């Protein structure tokens, strides 16, 4: 028989004999209650912190620096992917242009392949200029405006799109 009312313990002497502590109903409920309280506190703090630090601060700014033109000239003949901004930077013929790496179908990041670009999500393909050539992608990969900033760095504005690839080049000669 339980020693106390509302107790899961059958016999204290059993604990002494076996050397194992048994769990009382009160302790069990206290653990459950503490766990529930901890969960509520965690959810409340997550909500408050999410409000204080909204997602807008976590997304990269739409205007970013490419660096100095003279440094970009050293990358002549290359095309590289910048993961933070999800863009490709191409330097050729003393000029630079910046193209989105975001698939125009549902927004996956495309990969560079020999023929141009391939989206890993649903198989859309683009040629080397970013023109959509297959799959569900409805539009080409756009380029972004590149212009000199006050500090001498070249800046990219992802809000200013350049639809025609040939017009996206920006000269790097100083
Ligand atoms: S998101 Fe690229 S093909 Fe669907």
Automatic annotation (TrEMBL):
PROSITE patterns: RIESKE
Lineage: Bacteria, Pseudomonadati, Chlamydiota, Chlamydiia, Parachlamydiales
Transmembrane segments: 27-53
Domain Rieske: 93-146
Assigned keywords, A-Z: 2Fe-2S, Disulfide bond, Iron, Iron-sulfur, Membrane, Metal-binding, Transmembrane, Transmembrane helix
Organism: Simkania negevensis
Cofactor dependency: [2Fe-2S] cluster
The protein's name in its UniProt record: Rieske 2Fe-2S domain-containing protein
């Amino acid at each position: 028989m339980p020693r106390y009312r509302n107790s899961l313990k059958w016999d204290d002497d059993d604990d002494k004999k076996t050397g194992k502590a048994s769990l009382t109903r009160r302790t069990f409920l206290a653990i459950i209650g503490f766990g529930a309280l901890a969960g509520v506190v965690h959810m409340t703090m997550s909500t408050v912190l999410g409000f204080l630090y909204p997602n807008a601060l976590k997304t990269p700014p739409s205007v970013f620096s490419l660096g100095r033109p003279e440094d970009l000239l050293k990358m002549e003949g290359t095309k590289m992917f910048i993961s933070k901004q999800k863009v490709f930077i191409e330097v050729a013929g003393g000029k630079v242009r910046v193209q989105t790496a975001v698939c125009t179908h549902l927004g996956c990041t495309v990969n560079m392949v020999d023929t141009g670009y391939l989206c890993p999500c649903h198989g859309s393909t683009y040629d080397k200029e970013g023109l959509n050539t297959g799959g569900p992608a409805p539009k080409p990969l756009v380029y972004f405006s590149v212009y000199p900033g006050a500090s001498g760095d070249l800046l990219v504005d992802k809000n200013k799109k350049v639809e025609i690839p040939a017009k996206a080049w920006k000269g790097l000669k100083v």
